[in-house]
Specification:
It is built from one helix and nine strands; from the N terminus they run αβββββββββ. 11% of the residues lie in helices and 38% in strands. The chain has one helix spanning 2-19; strands at residues 54-55, 60-66, 72-78, 85-93, 99-107, 117-118, 131-138, 143-152, 157-166. The strands form two sheets. Strands 1-3-8-5-6 form a five-stranded mixed β-sheet, with no helix packed on it. Strands 2-9-4-7 form a four-stranded antiparallel β-sheet, with no helix packed on it. The protein has 167 residues and is mainly β.
Length: 167
């Protein structure tokens, strides 16, 4: 009797599982092919405002896209090291069509902040020259905001951004 009852429960359970839809089923449309040379960024809207700035870590490289002439990517780092630090950053455009620029604002612990400081932009067609900001003084407790935007925009292109600090 026990065996018959267990067999019935097993049969009913397996039939329920066979007809139930998967919780992990993908209802999205299948991907469509993109024309050759077209870049579709996987991340859009990340760090696009100062309030949503991406938090930086020392000695790290970041890679995102500038996807329009109005797009800007914001990063931030708060100096909690106990001593003043010098910040060095650089942005390198990986495509041949845009010119990118890095700029910064330092916000002090009392709420005051610098005006926007601008680095020299990258050169269109020369993806071996970075837009650099070197030895930016950031006192203990201050936050530096770094913005990357297109100085000249022609197409969606990827960039690499590096960040480091030292006393």
């Amino acid at each position: 009797m026990k065996l018959k009852k267990m067999l019935s429960i097993l049969l009913i359970s397996s039939s329920l599982l066979a007809i139930s839809p998967s919780a992990f089923a993908d209802s999205a449309e299948p991907a469509t092919a993109q024309p050759s040379g077209t870049i579709t960024p996987y991340v859009s809207g990340l760090g696009d405002t100062r309030n949503n700035a991406i938090t930086l870590m020392n000695m790290q490289e970041y890679s995102l896209y500038i996807d329009s002439a109005q797009d800007e990517d914001w990063y931030k780092w708060t100096n909690n090291t106990g001593v003043a630090q010098l910040v060095t950053t650089g942005v390198l455009n990986l495509g041949p069509q845009n010119s990118l620029q890095i700029s910064s604002i330092v916000q002090y612990t009392d709420g005051r902040e610098t005006t926007m400081l601008y680095a020299e932009p990258t050169i269109v067609g020369n993806n071996s020259k970075q837009s650099n900001m070197r030895n930016l003084y950031v006192p203990d407790g201050a936050t530096v905001y770094l913005r990357i935007n297109a100085n000249k925009f022609a197409a969606i292109e990827q960039y690499k951004f590096n960040f480091s600090f030292y006393p």
